[in-house]
Amino acid sequence: MMELSKYKSETRPDWCPGCGDFGVLNALIQAVANLNIDPKDLLVVSGIGCSSNLPGFIHAYGFHSLHGRAMPIATGARLANPDLNVVVTGGDGDGYGIGLGHFIHAMRRNLDITYIVMDNQTYGLTTGQASPTSQKSFVTKSSPLGTIEEPINPIALALVAGATYVSRGFSGDPKHLTELVENAIKHKGFSLVDVFSPCVTWNKVDTYDYFRQKCYKLNGPDYNTSSMEQAIAKSREWDPKIPLGLFYEAQKPTYEEQDPALKFGNPVKSQLGVANPQQLFQEFI
Amino acid sequence: MRNDFNVRIGGAAGDGISSTGEIFARTCSRSGLHVYGMNSYQSAIRGGHVWFQVRASLDKVTSQGDNLDVLIALNSETAEVHAPFVSKGGVIIYDKDKVKFNANLVPEGVKLLGMPLADMARKFDKNPIMQNTVALGATIFLLDLNFDVFSQVLSDIFGKKKQAVIDANTKAASSGLDFAKANYAQLDVKLVLPSNPRPKLLMTGNQAIALGAIMAGCKFYAAYPMTPASGVLHWMAAHAASQKVVVKQAEDELAVINMGIGAAHAGVRSMVGTSGGGFSLMVEALGLAAMTETPLVIMESQRAGPSTGLPTKTEQGDLNMMTGASQGDFPRIILSPLTVEDAYYATIEAFNLAERFQCPVIVASDLLLSEHIETVDDLSPNVVIDRGDLLNAAPSEPYKRFKITETGISPRAIPGMAGTVFVAASDEHMENGVVVSDVLSGLPKYVKERERQMEKRMKKMDVARNEIAAPKIYGVPNAELTLVCWGSTFGVALEAADTLTKDGIPTNVYAIRNVMPFKSDEVAATLKSAKKLLNVECNYTSQMARMIRAETGFEIKDKFVKYDGEPIYVYEIVNKAKAVVG
User: Fold this and answer.
1) What's the CA gap between B290 and B402, in Å, rounded?
2) Comparison of pLDDT for B159 and A79, the residue scoring more
């Protein structure tokens, strides 16, 4: 195990006191420490939003990219250097709103990337508008009469899109969350950890108390994490209770394992240029 | 005395026009001739009207040429549309049983060679595409080309198919040749072919770009299918395993460019390709590459806009967009290769510039350059790979990714290296990468940091401006008239200048190949010393002339523009030039 201090950033998080994202940052640090991942071999990629500031708060390589574009940045990095541990962190607006298309395609590719979504069901950084996971009738400055749309169901979406590790945690339960994140990083293939990460400033509905009362953990002999049917059924539960934990896990070849060029080794470590240019030129005769 | 000939074959999409054209073009290039070929097609998979043209010459040719010597009309529409362009002494080969056209459209002195193409073809294969081969056989005779070279090309191109296909095609061509020999005379424009010719490399601009990228060590290429950029994607995908380059077709161009940036950040040489519409989607991330100082090569092959525009037609209409895209001021480099050959070298140069200046570099192509085929002089296999200030190991002092330096260029580390951990952020940041956009913004110390980082990034443009080559004059010195152009328009401008010079108006060409940073002082001096100027470009508003005026204050008054989607023809520039000179 790596010492936790190895991941300590010089920059202190600028999140509001009590923000759920602190729990996610701590869980991530604990998970990579448990897995003995050297900060130099870890790349944390994010988009834009409160939670997307996370790469600045952990001592590891980071890419704090554009709103919604963390996933393709991470994809490019993974394909260029499959030895890197790539973790994508961001919020619900970033991943399920503006970046939704990339999220779905990353899952169907089964890239070996871990995606941690700090889902606070609102746009925090832009002062609390409705987000894609806001519950129906959520009242905000951009929806004064309450939202009309149904929320996105990220767990159900991930299951049908082909993610091979689909889980949900709660930043109010750091021990459980650490376990999910650790297993997600260990998992070979695309892993999603959707985290209820309450926004204490802008969301007075989906609070710590709300989730403490509503959430229960998926476990016990009746639940089989390799059953897509059970996972789909559980993913649709919200009232009266919301399940947390690992919904589904499957072993499938990753994209990286199947890419025709990556079979020949790690691109970032390979020789540049062409060994036999004349042979290549001959194609044009 | 002509030393070139021009052959056009036209029919419906699905008639195999493009492969027939390629076979003929390759026959010419293997015979030691210079070739310039172009494919005119529509955004339709079957039907419509398509044609392929091959101009071959003893000397280098740099445009499609104005007139035709041989027209192969596989349907009536082709005959009607193209007959007026056949030169005196030329011929129209057509199927006498099914192709009907108005004989009044045929210029005087053009012979009509009605052959039973379909009937003859049917003897060898039920595939009607075989009629193209019969017509090509006749053309081989008419232009006195070497049948053995032709049949070798056939077997190389159909090599992956069954021997029966090769045999049937060879016999069909041979019957076409025999028919022509028995019934027609060879054309006056036939050339005395070089003896023991060295076969020339024949490729499209897209292939030259892809080849250049591989030679430069590109290890990651991403794209979303879009005409006319897809040729690069196809070539790269076909060579992904053999050249160990990761090729990714992504879900959209937003993903494409961000994947490209991610790969470059991880340390490989990375390129993305698209056309104007896709580039529009990439715009935000263009600034991201600049802000995070990530080296990225972007191939933008322009097509006729705006919006979906004419997807299969050419234009140089994206200059304003390429020079101005994305919010804020940031360094970017734009190269517009002038020829297919130059597309190879410009792409290699683009990778070096991207890593040297750690910024996005755009290779500005267009449909004409990307998709036309041309013979190129021997390409140099000796490629210099300059990775710029890329670190091999951590420096002794604490690492600062965005360190202020005299050149603005900071030593670059990549993830995986020990002792150089940093975060690249789209937000404004300090030398150590820590963002100054959130809780620190507006505080005097960090206001200063912002200013320093802006100046550091922009400083790279000044350094790059000094390093890149100034535009050059091509052709006769002390010309009466100078044609100003950029990108693929160079080829036709060069031939127009040659024609004008022969017609008594000494004309040369000033080609702006390195568009950004702009060599303002050099361009201003050259333009001021020119006797008369004509700006030539393929868009409505003369975007380069506007850029020249913005960068130098110099206004080029006379302008030739074309925006109908078709490439510029030599005679069009010549006519305009003569009117300008008066």
Assistant:
1) 12
2) A79
- pLDDT one-digit tens code per residue, A7-42: 999 999 999 999 999 999 999 999 999 999 999 999
Contact A259 B246 (CB under 8 A): yes
Alpha-carbon separation of residue A123 from A50, A106, A201, A238, B306 (angstroms): 9, 23, 11, 21, 35
B536, B489, B217: which is closest to B364 by C-alpha?
A: B489
Of A53, A84, A280, which has the smallest distance from its Cβ to B416's Cβ? A84
Give domain B4-190's CATH number out of 3.40.920.10, 3.30.830.10, 3.30.70.100, 1.20.1730.10: 3.40.920.10
Residue B129's pLDDT is: 82
What is the per-residue pLDDT across B198-217, written as a single tens digit (0 to 9) for each?
A: 889 999 999 999 999 999 99
Q: What is the pLDDT of residues B459-478, one digit of tens each?
A: 999 999 999 999 999 999 99
Establish if B425 touches chain A: CB-CB under 8 angstroms.
yes
Q: Is the ipTM of this complex over 0.90?
A: yes
**Nearest C-alpha neighbor of B379 from the set B237, B211, B235:** B211
β-strand partners of B507: B481
For the segment B353-377, the average pLDDT, to the nearest whole number, is: 97
Alpha carbons A213 and A220: distance in angstroms, whole number = 20
**Considering the domain B472-581 in this protein, what is its CATH number?**
3.40.50.920
Interface membership of B440 toward A (CB under 8 Å)? no
Give the closest residue to B252 by CA, choosing from A174, A202, A223, A72. A72
- Chain A nearest C-alpha distance from B425 (Å): 4
CATH of B203-376, one of 3.40.50.970, 1.10.3720.10, 3.40.50.150, 3.90.79.10: 3.40.50.970
CB contact under 8 A, A63 and B217: no
Per-position b or e across B150-186, b if 16+ CB within 10 A of its CB: bbebbeeebeeeeeebbebbbbbbbbbbebbeeebee
Give the C-alpha separation, B155 to B159, whole Å: 5
- What one-character-per-residue DSSP string does B26-67 give? HHHHHTT-EEEEEEE--S-SSEEEEEEEEEEESS---S--S-
- Structural domain spans, chain A: 4-282
Q: Can you tell me the mean pLDDT for B447-457?
A: 97
What pLDDT does residue B1 have? Answer: 67
Beta-carbon contacts below 8 Å between A and B: 207
* Residue B423 to residue A10, Cβ atoms within 8 A: no
Q: Strand B34-40 and strand B373-376: pairing? A: antiparallel
Q: Where in chain B is the domain with CATH 3.40.50.920?
A: 472-581
Place of tokens 């490989």: B268
For β-strands B559-561 and B533-537, DSSP reports them as parallel
Beta strands across the sheet bearing B481-486: B472-475, B507-512, B481-486, B533-537, B559-561
Integer Cα distance of B331 and B340 in angstroms: 27
Architecture of domain A4-282 in this structure: 3-Layer(aba) Sandwich (3.40)
Mean pLDDT score across all residues of chain A: 97
pTM flag (> 0.80): yes
CA atoms within 13 A on the CB side of B311: 11
